[in-house]
Design brief:
There is one protein chain. By secondary structure, the chain is α/β, with parallel strands linked by helices. The protein folds into 3 domains: 41-216, 3-Layer(aba) Sandwich (Rossmann fold); 222-310, no CATH class; 315-430, Arc Repressor Mutant, subunit A, CATH 1.10.10. The protein is built from 23 helices and 7 strands. The chain has helices spanning 2-9, 13-29, 41-57, 73-84, 88-93, 107-117, 121-124, 132-144, 161-164, 171-181, 198-201, 204-207, 223-234, 243-258, 260-272, 276-287, 299-310, 313-318, 323-338, 346-359, 369-381, 408-417, 423-430, and strands spanning 61-66, 95-100, 154-159, 187-193, 214-216, 385-387, 402-404. Strands 2-3-4-1-5 form a 5-stranded parallel sheet, sandwiched between helices. Strands 6-7 form a two-stranded antiparallel sheet. Helix 13 packs antiparallel against helix 14, helix 16 crosses helix 17 (299-310) and helix 19 (323-338) crosses helix 20. The longest helix is centred in the N-terminal third of the chain and has 17 residues, at 13-29. It is flat, with a radius of gyration of 30 Å. Bound molecules: adenosine-5'-triphosphate (ATP) and magnesium ion (MG). The site of adenosine-5'-triphosphate has 17 residues, from helix 4 and helix 16. Magnesium ion binds next to helix 4.
């Protein structure tokens, strides 16, 4: 005991901080399974019941888990399987096959993968099969052999299920669902997809073989649950080597979550997406600001992380523009105001710029027209402006109609942070010359 105690007291704050970084980063990046899926209780129960019926009682079935990206479809299935595998009988019996629409891009590859995952390569050997159905039938039959008449249950997980619908004749889907309907062998087919309209993609004969069971994983998470989740995600485990540091850290996290400004940031994040993946990114960025000199997570860290997450790529691009290009953007902004968002051409932008040079500017150089046209073309290349659809390529560049692809807010924000932006340019952006 004395040895343990001495280890506890001898951890320097540097060691503590790096331990914290290690534990939490692992949690956010490795996407470990949570103790229990948050806010998905009924879905969890439903899926567990269904898979149990296949794994224990040998009933065949099919089901789709549908929901937007990052809402926990994969996690739900893994949690259910974790519980299912705790049952001794299931652990010995159930076979699992994982296919992913992004990897198994055609049915031949998928079949080879099924054979490999079922460890039946040797059994198949050099046999040649007439059809996909024959081949699949052979595989399932092989599982039956050696057992007393009953076949081993197989769970087929089809991730990115919708992509399998693009395979030729939907052969794989047809055959798997067909097996799941007949009493051939106990199989459960679980499809995961983020396409809510996935059933529309299925051919009639495939659709009719599907059980039409669906689990919707649209997050019904409340903000309270979300906040609780943030707290538990950031908290250190009880067995943290330095108990005192661990306790202090957890207290500071609890306090942080009650902070009004933090709540505001999280509310904003929650409103834009309840997706846990983007939350993890936010927390990870905030965590990276923790170091020995500030060994706790502060509200400013979260604020800064949130700013980084929501930073606008286009507004960022403006920082790399030259002053002349920036002036053209401001000219276009004014043209947008004057003509109510109607398209404009280079000649109009040029006039607006010239007016500025003559009347207000004392810091911007008066460039020649070809130089200005070059800058204009650069903006087109960067796709900050875009030719209006249907504008003929025969028209001279100067008269082709274009639209600005930036809004008022983006321009003003970028100007605020543009390094050494001349004040007269800034003023011009705020008030037009008219
Ligand atoms: N309700 C939840 N409770 C706890 N953790 C969750 C929940 N929903 C999502 N997560 C976490 O969010 C991350 C993303 O979830 P997951 O990979 O399951 O999403 P998905 O729906 O499968 O997305 P995709 O469609 O991109 O495959 C995982 O780390 C998961 O643990
Ligand atoms: Mg997934």
């Amino acid at each position: 005991m004395s040895k343990r105690k001495s280890r506890e007291t001898h951890m320097t704050s540097g060691e503590c901080v790096s331990q914290v970084q290690r534990i939490l980063r692992e949690r956010f990046c490795h996407q470990g399974l949570p103790e229990k899926p948050v806010g998905l209780d009924s879905q969890y129960k439903h899926l567990l019941e269904l898979l149990k019926r296949t794994a224990v009682h040998g009933e065949s079935n099919s089901i789709l888990i549908v929901g937007p990206r990052g809402t926990g479809k994969t996690m739900l299935l893994s949690c259910v399987l974790r519980e299912l595998m705790d049952i001794n009988e299931v652990q010995k019996n159930l076979l699992q096959v994982y296919l992913n629409g992004l990897l198994q891009t055609d049915d031949r590859i998928a079949l080879r993968e099924i054979t490999r995952q079922l460890n039946l390569e040797n059994v198949v050997g050099d046999k040649v099969f007439g059809s996909f159905a024959e081949n699949l039938g052979f595989l399932l039959e092989a599982l039956r052999k050696g057992d007393r008449g009953s076949s081993q249950p197989v769970l087929f997980v089809l991730d990115e299920f919708d992509l399998f619908a693009h395979h030729k004749n939907q052969t794989l889907l047809y055959n798997l669902l067909d097996v799941s309907q007949s009493a051939q062998a106990p199989v459960a087919v679980v499809g995961l997809t983020c396409r809510l309209d996935v059933l529309e993609l299925l051919e009639k004969r495939v659709k009719s073989r599907f059980s039409h069971r669906q689990i919707l994983v649209a997050s019904s998470l409340t903000f309270g649950q979300y906040l609780d989740n943030v707290r538990s995600q950031l908290s250190l485990p009880q067995d943290f080597p330095d108990a005192r540091f661990g306790q202090e850290w957890n207290d500071s996290v609890a306090k942080l979550c009650e902070d009004k400004s933090v709540e505001e940031i999280l509310q904003k994040q929650f409103n834009s997406s309840k997706d846990f993946r983007s939350l993890h990114l936010l927390l990870l960025l905030a965590l990276s600001r923790v170091n020995v000199s500030s060994p706790t997570l502060r509200a400013v860290d979260l604020l800064e992380a949130s700013r980084l997450c929501t930073v606008d790529a286009k507004a960022n691009m403006l920082h790399g523009l030259s002053i002349l290009e920036l002036c053209l953007i401001i000219s276009m902004k004014h043209l947008n105001d004057i003509y109510d968002g109607e398209p404009f051409n280079f000649q109009m932008v040029h006039n607006e710029y010239k007016k500025f040079i003559q009347r207000k500017s004392n810091s911007v150089h008066n460039y020649e027209k070809p130089v200005i046209l070059k800058a204009f073309e650069h903006l087109l290349q960067l796709e900050l402006i875009k030719l209006v659809d249907g504008s003929s390529s025969k028209t001279q560049r100067e008269y082709q109609l274009v639209r600005l692809l930036l809004d008022h807010g983006q321009i003003m924000e970028a100007l605020q942070r543009y390094p050494q932006c001349p004040t007269d340019v800034k003023q011009w952006a705020v008030s037009s010359l008219a």
